[in-house]
Every structure is written in C-alpha cells, then in structure tokens.
Fold this sequence. Notes:
Layout (H helix, E strand, L loop, with lengths): L4 H18 L13 H9 L2 H13 L8 E12 L2 H6 L7 E5 L4 E13 L4 E8 L4 H11 L1 H5 L4 E4 L7 H9 L2 E4 L15 H18 L10 H24 L14
Parallel strand pairs: 1-5, 5-6
Antiparallel strand pairs: 1-3, 2-3, 3-4
Amino acid sequence: MTPDLDSLATALYVKTDDLLKASPHLRHLFPYLPRQPGYSKRLRKAAELLRRVTRVLATDTSVWSDDVWIVDSTPVECGRSRETVKRSDLAGWAEYGYCASHSRFFWGLRLHLVCTLQGLPIAFALTGAKADERETLLDLLAAEAHLVAARPGQTLIGDKNYFGRGFEHQLAEQDIRLLRPVRKGEPERPGAPLFKPLRQVIESVNEICKGQLNLAQHRGRTPVGVIARVMQRVLAPTAAIWHNDHTGQLVLRSLTAYDH
C-alpha cells in the first residue's frame, strides 16, 4: 500500500472506531464535527485524549519494544517581544533559556522526548526552558516505571548534557546503559564511533517536530492550549509511524507522504 494522507486518515478513523467500541466511555468526546471555534475549545480539553491515543498507536507498532532509546530536548518558543513576556498567561512556566543549535536565547518551554531509533515517541514532557534535562529524564522514567521494568538492559543514547556520576548511577540502578559523547577532559567512552550517525537520527526526529510540524508556530496562548498543541505534534509522528509500520514502509519515521 502506498502511504498518503487519505489512507492514513482512513486507518485512523477505523482505529478510533475500534477504540470507541472497546471503551464506550470515550464516545461523548466525539458527538459531532465542530467548527473552528468549537474545535479550538475542544482541543484545549483534549490533552488526556491525545496522550491516550498516542500511547495506543505507539504500542501497536513493531518498534515499541526496541531496546535502544534516544533522548533529547528541543525549544518550544512562546513569545519574542518583551510585552508578550510580561502579559502572557504562560508567565511563571515559560522562561528564558538558551538554544545551542541557533546560538540564541528564547522565551518559552522545552519538549523532552524519549524515542526509539525509528523516531517513535516513548515518553515525553513539557517543561520550562531552564529545566535540567537529566532531572526531567529521571522524572519521566519514574512516572513511566513500567516501561523500564519491561525492558531490562535498555540502552539510552543522549548528548553531552546527560552527564554526571550520580545521574548515570541512577540510570544503572534501573538497568539502563547510557551512551553519550565524551565531554572535555573525560577519557574515551564506550560506543564513541556510533554517536555521529545516531546524532543525525536525533536531529532528524527533532526536525520533524520543528520543521514539518511547525512546533515553533504552535499558537498556544495558555498552558492548556500549549500542552494540547504540542501533544498534537507528538501524536502526528506516532500516527505516521504506526501507519508506515502497518503498511510495510522501509523508513518508518518519514512524514513526507503525508506532508501535502
């Protein structure tokens, strides 16, 4: 089967219909097709629904059980003018942080993603821009303890920000092996030759969110609105990977066929 937007929408409709039959208490969430104002209002209330559907689709793929994960975070800009920062409902959660890839500061949040090498989201969190990536990852793993318990000997690949003896010890206690690039002054670490190609995988996953899915133009103005719109960006690649997997595509994380 050739992947395209129509076939993806049809497959999702069938999957959702099956989900509603299995869980009738969700049916009240789909009473009619709302117009734009109603859609925006419903979207703001749909964060938990988006999370559940994302997990349902993710677990229904052949790569859900992969024994290698990648972890990274990417900026979610929420405003540029000083006036926006002062008046925004996001003040107190959104904050100033630094974007190394663009060598500039930004005001907003960070999306933290744990994915498979095929780009399938396993766990995710939305934090302030200054949140420590290591602490956020540990919190994610604690919140999703069953994921780790079901995968003894999991390998986790991150960048240089995921460092520290105590941090690595906490991962090791959960039977997670961390692979990351060497920091200045450190001895050579195992798996160093793998990092250059695998770093490109991480960048590819981030680019899907930032480029094809316009993460920077999410247009959320409140915490609830931002959460829902960011979760749309997590659900979209999950749905594409789910459909690519079930239709036998060679590259699962590609959204190109659905991007027009």
